[in-house]
Write a structure and sequence with these properties.
Blueprint (H helix, E strand, L loop, with lengths): L3 E7 L4 H12 L4 E7 L4 E6 L3 H9 L5 E6 L1
Antiparallel strand pairs: 1-3, 1-4, 2-3
Protein name: Copper transport protein ATOX1
Subunit structure: Homodimer. Interacts with ATP7B. Interacts with ATP7A. Interacts (via dimer form) with SLC31A1 (via C-terminal domain); this interaction improves ATOX1 stability and controls intracellular Cu(I) levels.
Family: Belongs to the ATX1 family.
Length: 71
């Protein structure tokens, strides 16, 4: 699969929440970059993985998260 940029909406209140998202996604070698925005409550991920796999990883943070679409 080719590299794509995915956008997720995630309940984040602080940098700790953002770091949790970066940590779980960082464990996946196919993830090229992770960009978080606490104010907008978004996580932008560049990866070759399908959105479902990324969503499952983000759910491990315990935060409410949903797939928005391709960015």
């Amino acid at each position: 699969m080719s590299e794509q940029t995915f956008l997720f909406k995630m309940e984040m209140t602080c940098e700790g929440c953002a770091n949790a998202a970066k940590k779980v996604l960082g464990k996946l070698s196919e993830v090229k970059s992770v960009e978080t925005n606490v104010e907008a409550k978004t996580v932008k991920v560049v990866s070759t993985l399908p959105s479902d796999t990324l969503l499952e990883a983000l759910k491990k943070t315990g935060k409410e998260v949903s797939f928005v679409g391709l960015a």
